[in-house]
Write a structure and sequence with these properties.
elongated, six-stranded antiparallel sheet, eight-stranded parallel β-barrel, alpha+beta, single chain, 14 helices, 32 strands, 679 residues
């Protein structure tokens, strides 16, 4: 089995032989490296080897014609030390006049590590371009086991790797890095979240569209401009990982998993950093532009992503690449789930039209390697396709529930006509999803990276994106926010108290809603972006978490932490359990009075009761949520609990709220929520 492979041909100073055509990318094999690449339009292919950091190859090895099967080139090059070289490819193609020409050096689309620009925000030397490194994938996972939380039990914490610890207030010894996340491990455990969703960590170009506004340097901070889908962003590592790229991220995933926290990646398959016809050519464009990107009949790029190009996701070759990519991150990194940016693009055909049963989505839904990971769609795109509640799910895909965000924001700020929508969202959006068969369809959220933070949601009526330099044309305008009487920072104690109460309302509603719950990192201690609702370019104090606010808002943090613990302690809140012994229905509505399900256009008081069994099926579990979104005090009467039980208050968002136990009545001040449970 370990017999050396025979060396067949010699090209220059290198012995070579045909490689493994089914093994994409560059991988270590016995006594050499296997290089496999494919291109439909190429008439020849060259492998370029570079000494580290150099821009002129020390070797150019053309693939012999006999080393090609179909449109795939594969070659083993013997006696290479992976620590001593970087590599790229050059496509030989036929020009329109029939002559042969060569592309610039191209990055391997299956590269597991990318060289060329690896220090955050630092321009590479002149002439430097993307090259790949060969990675030794031998990370020791030990007796590793994923947490595999039930979907409805998820409490997802969305974070930007750099922004999470970059501010000096974080106290991180490895700020802005993958490892910096572990500097906050105890914090995450104390908070109680059981999943983190990392904004893009694939290799991306933060220097794309670099510019200065009012003397401040702006970058592509969020990272939604993928350079390489199989490689981690090297500028997020705390140490250089030559030929071991990914180990730091793998250690983060392993450690978080060992502490009961799943790790999801925000993945961007809808476009790449190559941009439109004016953008650079460093990978896909050079191999097969017409295959990897959607073209209009006039030969331009479709731009359903809003970023210059759109990947042709349902072309068979692109489908296979995406599947290979996700398998790579599951097998090599043990990732627990994926959130797909602008996922509706993944359901468009090669002409851009929406498909009823997109083959890519079906392929991912039923792949055996991906069978246990979570697949979460952002069910819309920049081309106007909005599919919340209608995304082609194949009984497998979940959705970021944008309807939950919008409806709950409007109800919580007292808009008319929103009570009925709010009830639906809280109980799992049965108007959007078949909750009788699936408890894994909705990710409820009120805030995410895209939009206001929770603090800003109740401090600003309008976006304040002046620092972005687009004269206020960027960022959404329908924020459904409310400044509580003053725009921006306030020293008015009444305004500040109301804002905190509104934030408590939002968290309380989220944590007592059925389905997975997600919130933006920093919301639990009042982090602000100073009214910027599109901070994609702000690599500074606007986007970095200000951890000094944790001390300032410690009481609010404690409130959130206790809400999370309450949600975990009461499974009936997260989803339907076995029927209650007492015979009460799973969900019942009690708007101001017991068993009153009537909702009018001006209804702003909701009384909602969950009933079922506790975690071990022995005792009945009853939870009552009372919400008053009127601007004046209202009373809420409670249903009589089963024999032997009585209502006990868990929390109230207003200090003036009262539980009149003897009368079975709640006094709910304006814009307040109370949660009770049957003891």
């Amino acid at each position: 089995m370990n017999k050396a492979l025979p060396k067949i041909d010699k090209i220059g100073d290198f012995w070579v032989r045909p490689g493994d055509y089914l093994r994409n990318g560059a991988t270590v094999v016995k006594e050499g490296v296997n290089f496999t690449i494919h291109s439909v339009h190429a008439v020849g292919m060259e492998l370029l080897l570079f000494h580290r950091t150099e821009i002129e190859p020390y070797a150019v090895i053309p693939f012999p014609p006999t080393y090609k099967v179909g449109d795939t080139y594969s070659m083993i090059v013997f006696d290479l030390d992976i620590g001593e070289f970087e590599y790229a490819y050059r496509v030989v193609e036929k020009a329109p006049d029939g002559t042969l020409r060569k592309t610039p050096p191209l990055l391997d689309m299956y590269a597991h590590a990318v060289a060329g620009q690896s220090i955050w925000g630092k321009h590479a030397d002149e002439g430097v371009f993307y090259k790949a490194r060969v990675v030794q994938d031998d990370f020791d996972w030990g007796a590793f086991r994923e947490p595999r939380h039930a979907f409805k039990d998820l409490i997802i914490y969305e974070m930007h790797v750099r922004g999470f610890t970059m501010d000096p207030s974080s106290g991180s010894v490895r700020p802005g890095t993958f490892a910096g996340i572990l500097d906050k491990l105890d914090y995450l455990k104390d908070l109680g979240v059981n999943a983190v969703e990392l904004m893009p960590v694939f290799e991306f170009d933060e220097l794309e569209a670099e510019r200065y506004v009012d003397g401040k340097r702006l970058l592509n901070y969020w990272g939604y401009n993928t350079v390489s889908f199989f490689a981690p962003n090297t500028s997020y590592t705390s140490v250089k990982e030559y030929n071991r790229e990914g180990n730091e991220l793998k250690n983060v995933i392993k450690t978080l998993n060992e502490n009961g926290i799943e790790v999801f990646l925000d993945v961007v398959f809808n476009h790449t950093a190559e941009g439109d016809d004016r953008g650079p050519t460093f990978s896909f464009k050079g191999y097969d532009k017409e295959i990897y990107y959607m073209d209009t009949p006039e030969g331009y790029y479709y731009n359903f992503s809003g970023c210059g190009n759109t990947m042709n996701c349902n072309h068979p070759m692109v489908r296979q690449m995406i599947l290979d990519c996700l398998r790579h991150w599951v097998v090599e990194y043990r990732v627990d789930g994926f959130r797909f940016d602008l996922a509706s693009i993944l359901g468009r055909d090669e002409n851009g039209a929406p498909m009823s049963a997109p083959p890519l989505l079906e392929l991912l839904a039923h792949d055996p390697i991906l069978s246990k990971v979570k697949l979460i769609a952002e069910a819309w795109d920049a081309g106007g396709l909005y599919q919340v509640g209608s995304f082609p799910a194949f009984q497998r895909w979940a959705e970021w529930n944008g309807r939950y965000r919008d409806d709950m924001r409007r109800f919580l700020k007292s808009d008319e006509g929103m009570a009925e929508c709010a009830v639906r969202r809280i109980i799992g959006s049965p108007d959007l999803y078949d909750v009788s068969t699936r408890g894994d369809a909705t990710v409820n959220f009120i805030t995410c990276h895209d939009g206001f933070t929770l603090y800003d949601l109740y401090a600003y009526n309008d976006k304040h994106n002046e620092a972005n330099g687009w004269n206020g044309t960027d960022g959404c305008n329908d924020n459904h926010s409310w400044n509580c009487g003053e725009e921006g920072e306030s020293t008015n104690p009444q305004v500040c108290a109301l804002r905190e109460q509104m934030r408590k309302n939002a968290f309380t509603a989220l944590m007592t809603s059925r389905g997975a719950a997600m919130f933006l990192a920093g919301d639990e201690f009042g982090n602000t972006q100073f009214g910027n609702n599109n901070a994609y370019c702000q690599d500074n104090e606007i986007s970095w978490l200000d951890w000094s606010l944790l001390k300032k808002n410690k009481a609010f943090f404690t409130y959130v932490k206790e809400l999370i613990a309450f949600r975990k302690a009461h499974p009936i809140v997260r989803g339907k359990t076995k029927a209650a012994h007492c015979g009460l229905p799973d969900i019942s509505i009690h708007n101001e009075h017991p068993w009153n399900e009537t909702i009018h256009y001006d209804t702003r008081v909701i009384g909602l009761m969950y009933a079922g069994r506790n975690a071990d099926d022995t005792e009945d579990d009853l939870v009552f949520v009372a919400m008053n979104m009127f601007w004046e005090t209202r009373e809420q009467y409670l249903p009589i609990p089963p024999d032997g039980k009585w209502w006990k208050q868990f929390c109230a968002t207003s200090d003036e709220a009262r539980f009149m136990k003897e009368e079975g009545k709640l006094i709910l001040p304006a814009r307040s929520i109370m949660v009770l449970y049957a003891q």
